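User: Sec translocon accessory complex subunit YajC, Zhongshania marina:
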Amino acid sequence: MSFFISEAHAQSAGAGAPPGGELFQIGFLVLMFALFYFIAIRPQRKRQKEHAAMVAALSKGDEVVTTSGILGKVTKLDDDYVVVSVTDNVELKFQRSSIHAVLPKGTLKAI
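Assistant: Predicted structure for Sec translocon accessory complex subunit YajC:
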């Protein structure tokens, strides 16, 4: 049966782990967390703050794009909702967080 499964041999008692290996592992984990923080967490928080500032600064008459790609002009604002006029007689109500970007004035006429 040893043809298919190699036999396991115990490690000799004299050969142990090299000294300082635990410190290296802890340092490596700290370095990986720091790298992950600067690559993923910090830029995401920056984007969240910028989006929150943009949504808080919305005003009547702003031309916006929603996350679903709908273009329109802000006609009414509530605490949590915004009403966007898409055409003359069509107004849609969205949550403020669904506003993706504020466009420069005159963009809707140019499109």
